[in-house]
Amino acid sequence: MRAKLHYLAIMTIMPIYGIQVCPFIESLSAIEVFVTFDVILVLIYFARGPLRARLVDRAPLAAQTLRVFTLELVLFASAALILMFYNTEVHHFPLVSGMKVLVGVTAMGFFASADLALEREREVAHRVERERLSLPLSGNFFPLSSKLALFAAGCVALLVGVFMLLVNKDLDWLVEVGSAIPLAEGRLSILKEFGFVLLVAMPETLNIIWSFSRNLNMFLMRENGVLACVTSGHYDMAVPVSSNDEFGVMAQHTNEMVRRIRERTEELQRTRDVTIMTLASLAETRDNETGAHILRTQRYVRALAIYLRDHPRRADVMDDETIDLLYKSAPLHDIGKVGIPDAILLKPGKLTEEEFTVMKDHPKIGAAALRVAEDELGGNSFLNYAREISLSHHEKWDGSGYPQGLKGEDIPLSGRLMAVADVYDALISKRVYKPAFSHQKAMAILREGRASHFDPVLIDALDAVEMAFCEIARAFRDEGQIDEDPALGHLAHSSR
């Protein structure tokens, strides 16, 4: 469509231009001038289709923009040369007449070729993005600054050339007519000619500026879009390398930077996760609980959190990132137990009141240790959740818990989630001081603690994800656990 518009514009404007600048063309009838120009341009237009298919469409994507510009400019110049040859052979016009036409058609063709080349640049960029391609870059690309300078120089040279032809023609005309035409009428005629050229040149120039700005904005938006994603923590984006210029190099370096950030982030996350599990396992080795306890409880927390994501009272604070942080930080809920003496921590029987008072210090011990790490790192959302869970997972909804005696919504949601997960797992697990309770008994105890020990919303959530709890308990069971509670296996099987 853009090509058609350019050809129609040239078919309309160039005959008028020829009449304005060349007295020989002016001597012909308007119909003859228009027919001659238009027939040649129509033939050139129909020839450009096969030529573009052969010389442009089959070329590598990186070379297509330059090839479009070159081919289109050559075609327009060829039309001017054919017209010049025709006028010389048929009408016996001098060479200077043909040169004037050549300058005019080349000027219009220059603007049209630049616009069509910029259009092809956009098409290539969209194809590269759509098909997830990447253009090969060479260190020998034509700099963007040089492109702008060349375009500006070309515009100036062509406009100066056209105006010089107009001035030369008008001077000859003034000499010829002498005083036969009033000065005011002659001045008005010359100003009309100059106004006509400006009226044609300005829209063409502004169109190129707009088209170039459109491409520039496209490249910058892609670059800024990926950088914005990286800033927000998403490293799965890439800038399409769709031009062999500064933007292509910028895109290539940006993608390499994102790749390295992604690899380093993944490495740090793996290191963090392994460290968490190592610390949590270390705490478990000093306790009378099993290593599978931390695997189960963190999955219980995630199951409850996923359910809350769609809950009207909790959806605003529960997104995918928060769920992942809760899942990753849950294993550190009992890290404070490393500070409890073995005589109390490993005691097989019931603790005395004094011993239980010491045991109740483990949430503070864990939170204090995590606070030191959090302060050292200058604030960290993961450690913040881990500290919250460590400090508050023994708090109770009615305020009778420890260590701070928090009540209701004052208890962090992370601690309330951990409380449900931790108590459920403790109930269904065998300990040296107690047998494993059945799933049904554990659920009954938890429901009995609704609105006293546990957040009522979370007990409702537990009822909704009961099958998921059974599946987790079964998948990460302690040895012999299924035999002791056949209901776990039956419910987990039913949930599949």
From TrEMBL:
One GO cellular component, as annotated: membrane
UniProt domain HAMP: residue ranges: 230-266
This protein's record includes keyword Transmembrane helix: yes
Residue ranges of domain HD-GYP in the record: 268-478
Top-rank taxon: Bacteria
Keywords associated with the record: Membrane, Transmembrane, Transmembrane helix
One Pfam family recorded for the sequence: MASE10
MF (Gene Ontology): phosphoric diester hydrolase activity
Record field: transmembrane: 28-47, 68-86, 148-167, 194-212
Listed PROSITE patterns: HAMP, HD_GYP
Gene Ontology biological process terms, A to Z: signal transduction
Name under which the protein is recorded: HD domain-containing protein
Higher taxonomy: Bacteria, Pseudomonadati, Pseudomonadota, Alphaproteobacteria, Rhodospirillales
